[in-house]
Every structure is written in C-alpha cells, then in structure tokens.
C-alpha cells in the first residue's frame, strides 16, 4: 500500500471533478524540509519555530539571536525551492517556558503563551520578526501568529512587523515587502469573532489541536480526559465549517494545520466544509492526497451539510465514515 501511495508523489492533488487542493507540510526544523518535498508537499503550512528555541543548553536560557534564526529560516526557505514557507512566530511560554526558573502558571494553557508572551517580550519578538523578514528575501514567506484573540493583539503585532520592516529598510537590509501575515484561529473567541480578524489579516490557519482543547475544555495533554477530546463534537465541526466559510467569503485563504488535517478519515469531511488547504505532518501527505483524488466534491458537500445539522454523536460518526464510501 505504501508503494502505491509513493506513486502519487508527483500527482497533483485534484478532486475527481477537477478542484485543486493545496497540501502543505508541518515542520519543526529546516532539516524536515527534504522529507516534506519527498512526500510531495507544495510548501510549508506550519513551521513551528519554537523548536529552534527549545532544549537549548542545561537551563534553556540561551535563545537564538537574530543571525542564527535568520540562517535557520533561510535554510528552510532555500530548501523548499521557491515554494511557500509559513513561519509561525514563537509559541512558547507557560508550559514551555524559555526560562524554567520563571513562575509557573496554575493554568498554563490559559496563561502567558505564544503571542501573549511575545508582546510581553517585545525585544525577543522584534528579533524574531527581523530574522523572518530577512529570510523572506530568499523565497516565498508568510508569517503566522499563534493564539490571537483580541483586536489589540493583532494591531500591536502588525505594528511590530512594521517597525521591523522600517528598521531593515533604514539599514538597507533586503526583505520581501509583500510578506503576508496571517492568524492561527485556535481560540474559540477568535473563530466566533472572525470578522475582527479578516479585516486585519491576509490569511487564516485553523489550529484544531488548541481549538478543540479550548472549545471542549479538555487539556490536550491530560490523559485522564483524553477520551473526551472529540474532533467530531458538533460544536467543533460547526465552528470549523463556519470559520472556513467566513474566511473564504472575505477572500482569504483558509488552511487547517492541526492534527485533523492529517487524518485521512477526516479529509472528505473537511473538503465538504469547503477546505482547500491542508497542512500536516509529511508522513500523512500521500494518504490524504489519495482521499482527495478519489473524492466527488458535489456528493461530499451535500452530505457534509447534513452532518453539520446532526447533533447525535453516533449519527455524526456513522455519517463521517460513510463519506469515505462515496
Ligand atoms: C494547533 O493548535 O492545532 C496547532 C497546529 O498548533 P500546535 O499543535 O503547535 O499548538
Ligand atoms: Mg496551537
């Protein structure tokens, strides 16, 4: 079966009725890029930049400076040979502290993490933004911001990106002035107040891992409640579908970059919701592509509408399974 999948590497990801789908890779380090290309990725949809910062030295205190970050981002951009590279800004803090001696929050998932941490540490954030912008001179880069919920966070972030650009311009350092900036939609409030985001952002990427955690109030790393972590909960499905539709209506590209995007059992459900951009672990790419190649979009879309109206978990699970037999 694996051999059969490998044959699909160069086949374009197009549904039976001719709709093109973008398949991107989630990576942690630039070294993951060759593997992503090998799996047929059309680009990187999520570069989890925190992996450059984590596990550094005995106490994790030595964060990489601008030049070192720039080299790593550039390495990824060059390795992808002109394909899109979406670099997510630092998603640390709370449970992944840069300084482990700092106080630990009682509810780390609700604490000072990701963009909240970056806006509280503007020097660190500016350094990363400068490094990403410098790398944008070598290919097609997008900047993705994690954990946004408030309009002022978006505005502050955009102002800092402008500040980084101004600095580089004044220093005569090259960057791509057209770099797109997008938001991770992974806090329910962001999904429910999406017009606030589409006005300010150029693309969206739905982080289903955190979106489910916050929507269902299930700690994603707590095994005692893992059985309650259900991507098919009707509230989850409807919020994802609504986010895709609202984003598209505003003319924005919308991706899913959480684990759901890499689950071939959910490929058709997401297609039926209108999703056309999937970002996943490279190991999942060909299996998801195979689902897409065999998909009849019209039939799937009609069925998905029905699934979104269903409220009984058994009914939803059975209908999602049925999508695969279409
Ligand atoms: C997500 O939350 O779905 C996501 C893609 O980001 P992470 O898993 O790194 O939090
Ligand atoms: Mg997340």
TrEMBL record:
One Gene Ontology MF term: phosphoenolpyruvate-protein phosphotransferase activity
Organism: Massilia hydrophila
Family, as annotated: Belongs to the PEP-utilizing enzyme family.
Keyword Magnesium: yes
Entry keyword Zinc-finger: no
EC annotation from Swiss-Prot or TrEMBL: 2.7.3.9
Catalytic activity field: L-histidyl-[protein] + phosphoenolpyruvate = N(pros)-phospho-L-histidyl-[protein] + pyruvate
Keywords per UniProt: Cytoplasm, Kinase, Magnesium, Metal-binding, Phosphotransferase system, Sugar transport, Transferase, Transport
Residue ranges occupied by any PEP-utilising enzyme C-terminal domain in the UniProt entry: 4-295
Transmembrane segments: none
Localization, UniProt: Cytoplasm
Function: General (non sugar-specific) component of the phosphoenolpyruvate-dependent sugar phosphotransferase system (sugar PTS). This major carbohydrate active-transport system catalyzes the phosphorylation of incoming sugar substrates concomitantly with their translocation across the cell membrane. Enzyme I transfers the phosphoryl group from phosphoenolpyruvate (PEP) to the phosphoryl carrier protein (HPr).
Protein name: Phosphoenolpyruvate-protein phosphotransferase
Source organism phylogeny: Bacteria, Pseudomonadati, Pseudomonadota, Betaproteobacteria, Burkholderiales
Obligatory cofactor(s): Mg(2+)
Organism domain of life: Bacteria
């Amino acid at each position: 079966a694996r051999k059969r999948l490998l044959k699909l590497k160069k086949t374009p990801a197009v549904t039976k009725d001719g709709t093109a789908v973008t398949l991107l890779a989630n990576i942690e380090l630039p070294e993951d890029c060759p593997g992503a290309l090998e799996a047929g990725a059309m680009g990187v949809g999520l570069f989890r930049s925190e992996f450059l910062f984590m596990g550094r030295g005995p106490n994790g205190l030595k964060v990489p400076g601008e030049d070192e970050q720039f080299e790593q981002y550039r390495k990824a951009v060059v390795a992808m040979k002109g394909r899109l590279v979406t670099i997510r800004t630092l998603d640390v803090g709370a449970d992944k502290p840069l300084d482990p001696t700092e106080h630990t929050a009682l509810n780390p998932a609700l604490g000072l993490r990701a963009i909240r941490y970056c806006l509280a540490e503007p020097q660190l954030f500016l350094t990363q933004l400068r490094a990403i912008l410098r790398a944008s001179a070598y290919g097609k880069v997008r900047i993705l911001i994690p954990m946004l919920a408030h309009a002022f966070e978006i505005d502050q972030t955009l102002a800092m990106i402008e500040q980084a650009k101004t600095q580089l311009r004044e220093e005569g350092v090259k960057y791509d002035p057209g770099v797109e900036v997008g938001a991770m939609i992974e806090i329910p409030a962001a999904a429910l107040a999406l017009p606030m985001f589409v006005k300010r952002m150029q693309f969206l990427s739905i982080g289903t891992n955190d979106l489910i955690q916050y929507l269902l109030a299930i700690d994603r790393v707590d095994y005692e409640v893992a059985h309650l972590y259900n991507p098919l909960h009707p509230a989850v499905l409807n919020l994802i579908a609504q986010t895709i539709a609202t984003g598209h209506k505003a003319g924005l590209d919308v991706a899913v970059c959480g684990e759901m995007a890499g689950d071939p059992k959910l490929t058709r459900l997401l297609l039926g919701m209108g999703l056309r951009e999937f970002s996943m672990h490279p190991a999942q790419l060909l299996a998801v592509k195979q689902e897409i190649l065999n998909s009849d979009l019209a039939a799937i879309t009609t069925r998905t509408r029905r699934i979104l109206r269903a409220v009984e978990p058994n009914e939803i699970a059975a209908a999602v399974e049925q999508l695969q037999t279409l």
